[in-house]
Structures are given as C-alpha cells and as structure tokens.
Amino acid sequence: NRIDIVHGVNLDMLGRRPAAHYGDLTFDQLEQQIEGFAHELDLEPRFFQTNSEGEFVGHLHRLEGLADGVILNPGAWTHYAWAIRDALEIAAVPAVEVHLSDVEHREEFRRVSVIRDLCVATVAGQGVEGYREALAILKRHLA
Ligand code: DQA
C-alpha cells in the first residue's frame, strides 16, 4: 500500500523547536525513521512538507488515486484551518492524524482538531513512535 506522510507548517523546523515537546530529531531524521517503519510494515511511503496552507490543500486535492492512505500532521493548522478539513474530505483517502507532542495536555487551543472526526484514528504524544502506530493502524484499516 502507498502511504502519503504529509507535514504542515513549522514541522521542517523540528530541530529548532522545544525538545521537551518534539524530541531532538531533525525533520530529515524524522522522515528517515518513518521511512524505516513503513518498510518494516511493507508499506510504500511518500513524503511531503510545506509551510503554505495553499500547497497543503493542493496536495490533498491530488491524493486520490496516488495514495491508499494518508498520515497527516498539519502542525498548528490542525487547530483552526477549516480549509484543510474540507480538502481532506475532498481527498476521500483513509487518514490518520499524528502529533508528536501530547496536544491534549498542553495549551487549551491545541485540544481542538478540525480534522479529527474525518480520521480513522488520532495518535498524539508518542513522538516519532506515533508514526509507527499510525502506519500500523492504516495497514490494518486497508487490509
Ligand atoms: C504538533 C502540535 C501542534 O499543536 C503544533 O502547532 C505543531 C506540532 C505536534 O506534532 O505535536 O506544530 O502538530
């Protein structure tokens, strides 16, 4: 199965964000780890990151037929970007939401997710390991 791993705003700056929330990996290292997890699960990963909401939405528009599932970490857009929610609905591809940090137990605004109810599952607060779980969830969902 082909799985798209889509990262949003500020995730490319991972190495410069608070390690207490996000761990100490750089973004390149994060993607490399996820690639390893995908191969262990016999999944075909493809990666995309942007800081532009328009590009993020455009990427979702193009997913149908190119990916069997999608893992999304939209960063702060998660909490308010209704256009991303609409684009995910249009994409019509099984999705799992991932957050590195424990969004339920940080600032109040991070407890809201505009995409959650469109997703098969949400994984948060497990750092890079959360992506392994998300991949396994999608694999089971697609079986
Ligand atoms: C994040 C959590 C968001 O609240 C934050 O804005 C991010 C990263 C995470 O992976 O924990 O940029 O999505």
UniProtKB/TrEMBL annotation:
Question: What InterPro entries does this protein's entry cite?
Answer: DHquinase_II (IPR001874), DHquinase_II_sf (IPR036441)
The catalysed reaction is:
3-dehydroquinate = 3-dehydroshikimate + H2O
Q: Which domain of life is it from?
A: Bacteria
Q: Enumerate the GO terms in the molecular function aspect.
A: 3-dehydroquinate dehydratase activity
The site annotation (Transition state stabilizer) covers R17
Q: Where does substrate bind?
A: N73, H79, D86, L100, S101, R110
Q: Write out the entry's keywords from A to Z.
A: Amino-acid biosynthesis, Aromatic amino acid biosynthesis, Lyase
Q: Where is the active site?
A: Y22 (proton acceptor), H99 (proton donor)
Keyword Lyase on entry = yes
**Is the keyword Lyase assigned to this protein?**
yes
- Supply the EC number(s): 4.2.1.10
The protein's annotated pathway? Metabolic intermediate biosynthesis; chorismate biosynthesis; chorismate from D-erythrose 4-phosphate and phosphoenolpyruvate: step 3/7
Q: Which GO terms describe its biological process?
A: amino acid biosynthetic process; aromatic amino acid family biosynthetic process; chorismate biosynthetic process; quinate catabolic process
Q: Name one Pfam family in it.
A: DHquinase_II
Family, as annotated: Belongs to the type-II 3-dehydroquinase family.
Subunit organization = Homododecamer.
- What's this chain's function? Catalyzes a trans-dehydration via an enolate intermediate.
According to UniProt, the name of this protein is: 3-dehydroquinate dehydratase
Per the UniProt record, the source organism is Baekduia soli
Biological classification of the source? Bacteria, Bacillati, Actinomycetota, Thermoleophilia, Solirubrobacterales
Q: Which gene encodes it?
A: aroQ
